[in-house]
Amino acid sequence: MTLWSGRFSRPMSRALWELSESFSFDHVLYAHDIVGSRAHVRGLARAGLLTGEEASELDRVLVAIEGEFAAGTFARHDQDEDVHMAIERRATELAGPIGARLHTARSRNDQVATTLRLFTRDALSALGHEVLDLVDVLVELGERYEGAYLPGYTHLQRAQPVLLAHHLDAHAWALLRDVDRLADTRTRLNVSPLGAGALAGTSLAIDPSATASWLGFREPFANSMDAVSDRDFVAETLSSVALLGVHLSRMGEELVLWTTAEFGFASLGDDFTTGSSMLPHKKNSDVAELARGKSGRMVGNLVSLLTTLKGLPLSYNRDLQEDKEPLFDSLTQASLVVTAIAGAYRSLTFHATVAQRAAHDELLGAIDIAERLVADGMPFRLAHDLVGRAVGDAVAGGIPLSDVVAATEQLATYGDVFEEGYTLASRRSPGAAGPAALPAQRVRLEAARVRARSSLAPITPVLPSL
Ligand code: ARG
């Protein structure tokens, strides 16, 4: 018998049961569901809908049920459709007739919305902290190889030399924006739906603002229909995670390239690489490929939810149950990737000699000659053209650019740009890739890291004593 079987004369078909049960995946919500119920019990007691003794007893059994889940001893019954009904069923078993009062002035519709917000709130901070740890690893790697540089690319063609620290910081900035989005999503989701009931509130004298504040929500819902039908917070989470996934994928792609024999800029530690079942010599960067590959399902999960939501009339519809698996999957996969890719960077050896040799390509000095001509008064377009011709001659003749420059009257005085380190050192404008510009960037990066950390400060329920 289900908890709602009163008006039915035949039990649910097996096929519908298997379609609709969600305990198999929503059981992970148990702790957040229980804290929501414990706040609800306090609200019922305040409203005079439970005596103090009844409330204490219900609270005691809810804590006991949480213990059963945590210990792995919670026994699911055949009729437990989802985590919410499983907990209520067990509370009724443990508390006897008082259990039948737990769901007063509440629907699973406001309950599941409350539970999922509490769960997502914690998950967003946990993931945000993992991303910040990855930022730490990137910054440390740049510091470990202080002064090392490599070619910076556009169109995957060598463009200009850049400090390794500058290059890695570029990824750190993208990740800090991800943390900002995760924190921002958490702030916006922090509104309590508890008290909205099925869709229209209740005739009973509950106080949604009290339960909201005990659960650490900023405020209670303003509109009961919006409260039970809103899954924007899931869409925003999936969107923020998808973009994080895209950033991790790009980092993965770069690690794949860097660790090829063709690039040879880096090697990953043995503990972050895999071998081949057939080819004895292989050392593969699977960690980076999985970072790239996993992003596909994070993007897919976002599209899945948006597609689910787009045709739904107000208010709660059972389609909304399809919010959970994409959400859990994206959060789990993102956490796996962030943690593994942080380990991969920590294990990374940067082959500075190889990378710097690639950056010593004389053609990368072409812009420096053009900028020196500009500094001496020539309009940039003319300078570009003049140097472009010299490059064309060098490439066509198979001779070093420095030789052509030395032999060209208007350019001959600028031969020093080909001295080692000249090009990198001259990138000193604000935010540029050279060593002189790095300290000021690091000041801003450090401030952003501090801000990001404080934006993730814990938000925790504080339940009043009974
Ligand atoms: N498991 C359901 C969900 O995730 C709970 C809400 C069910 N509500 C209902 N009216 N059938 O959405």
Task: Give the CATH level 1 class of the largest domain.
Answer: Mainly Alpha
Q: Calculate the terminal CA-CA distance, rounded to whole Å.
A: 32 Å
Low-confidence stretches: none
DSSP helical segment count: 18
The CATH architecture designation of the largest domain is: Up-down Bundle
Class by helix and strand content? mainly alpha
Ligands bound here? arginine
Q: Can you give the mean pLDDT? A: 96
CATH superfamily of the largest domain: Fumarase/aspartase (Central domain)
Total count of domains = 3
Largest sheet composition: 2 strands, antiparallel
Number of strands: 6
What is the strand arrangement across the widest sheet?
1-2
Strand content: under 5%
Q: Judging from the principal axes of the Cα atoms, what is the shape? A: elongated
CATH topology category name of the largest domain? Fumarase C, Chain A, domain 2
Question: Any key phrases for this structure?
Answer:
466 residues; Fumarase C, Chain B, domain 1; Fumarase C, Chain A, domain 2; Ribonucleotide Reductase Protein R1, domain 1; 3 domains; two-stranded antiparallel sheet; 5% strand; binds arginine
In brief, what are we looking at here?
The protein contains 18 helices and six strands. It has 466 residues and is mainly α. The chain folds into three domains: 13-104, Fumarase/aspartase (N-terminal domain) (Fumarase C, Chain B, domain 1), CATH 1.10.275.10; 109-201 and 222-357, Fumarase C, Chain A, domain 2 (Up-down Bundle); 359-444, Ribonucleotide Reductase Protein R1, domain 1, CATH 1.10.40.
